[in-house]
Amino acid sequence: MKQPPSTTSSNKKTKLNLINIKKILVIGLLLRLLILLVSSSHPDIGNHLDWGIRFLDLGPKKFYENIFWGVSWPNQPYGSILLFALMAALKNGLFSIIEFINQSIPFFPSFIIPYIETNLHSWMVKLPFILSDIGIAYLIYKIVYNYKKDYAKLAAALFIFNPVVIYNSTVWGQTDSLINLLALSGLYFIYNKKYFPGIFLFLSGFLFKLSLIIYLPIFALLMLKRIKDWKSFIIPTLSFLFFIYLLAIPFAFGAKNPFQWLWYMYTNRVLVRQGSMLNGNAFNFWFLIFGLDFSKSEFSNFAGLSYQLWSRLFFILTLIPISIKFLKSKLSLNLLLKALLLSSFSSFLFLTNMHERYLYPILPIFVILIFLNKSHFTIKYYLIISILHLLNLYNLWFYPKLPLLKSILVWDNFLVGKVISLFFIIYFLIIYKQFITHEDK
């Protein structure tokens, strides 16, 4: 008679899988650290360095009211500022230790001290986003493992070794990986009825950036479909409000209460400093129509309405059928992820003042959908979209210097970018139609 597998054997297999995913994550981390040491940084990171230094000098009460900045005014919420300040403080402490070692150990290679002094701060600022890459890869692994465990490591590898993901966090040094990790983790916890960590994590993303506010409609619909006892919503929400209340107290200069200051911070110091370009170098609908022209404002009019208003109408018109389909369909992870992907893709394609980096949210979701639903979500299309997105990130910064690629991208008023924009729009319409017209499984 065939014996069932023993618990010991099952545990060994589990440990083996855990070791394997650990190796993938460690290799992904080491690869990023190696690239970190030899690559340059995008000019944007100058803001992050300056804001962290100024916070340590000025303190929270004077920070947002300061008028002297090394690069530009702070346009990010205080969660990002606190993170940059923490990295600046850690950099100072770490460099003091390195200097002490250099002075105490005769054979320490002193010639590397200037190089470390020049680059250590930017390395430290990029580190949270590198670690967030690793966190997203592990989240992808855990999700896919629950559905198709034989493909879970492949799914994690597709994300963690994706050059465009590495370029975003390790070379550019942007925050996209952090806020996407918080949002996706939160939504996945809520889907699995773990409401307290889910709501807390999802809302925490808005302390760092507002770019994933596009997920709020799907978040609300998920809560409506998932939560039966509204205490499960009220308790974590009140806990989060108390948390941000405590964080805001040091900043709340002259305000009656920290919530008053929070409103002031977002409306007068964050949202008003986001720029008003028609397009911020995103290969999308506006790039296709007008090319790359930073002189065009989103407040310019067409047929009596501003381009900003037109863009929001386009976005809402795509979001309404997504929301109706979400409400009418039986809740599944496949349904949730498709709704999130289409929402983020639509915002990238149709909203004004959109930057090239804001296509990032579809990448981790796309990887998971490859293994949950292969209809139009395949490794081939994932790789194509990743390559085209990488070209969009490379456009304008042109780092590393590749003269031939640069000449191709800028040729005929960025014609290649327009072609890529058209491809993105067509692909979006295909998967959008499939989602709206086909029964979710």
Could you explain the architecture of this structure?
- The radius of gyration is 23 Å and the shape is globular.
- With 441 residues, it is mostly helical.
- A two-stranded antiparallel ribbon has the order 1-2.
- It starts with 6 loop residues before the first helix and ends with a helix.
- Strand 1 and strand 2 form a beta hairpin.
- The chain is built from 18 helices and two strands.
Task: State the main characteristics.
two-stranded antiparallel sheet, 2 strands, mainly alpha, 441 residues, globular, 18 helices
Task: Write a brief caption for the model.
Helix content is about 70%, strand content about 0%. With about 450 residues, the chain is an all-alpha fold.
Strand order of the largest sheet: 1-2
Largest sheet descriptor? 2 strands, antiparallel
N-to-C CA distance: 38 Å
Report the order of strands and helices.
Answer: HHHHHHHHHHHHHEEHHHHH
Tally of helical segments: 18
Helix fraction bin: 55-70%
Overall body shape: globular
How many β-strand runs?
2
Strand content: under 5%
Average pLDDT number: 91
Low-confidence stretches: 5-10
Radius of gyration: 23 Å
Structural class, please?
mainly alpha
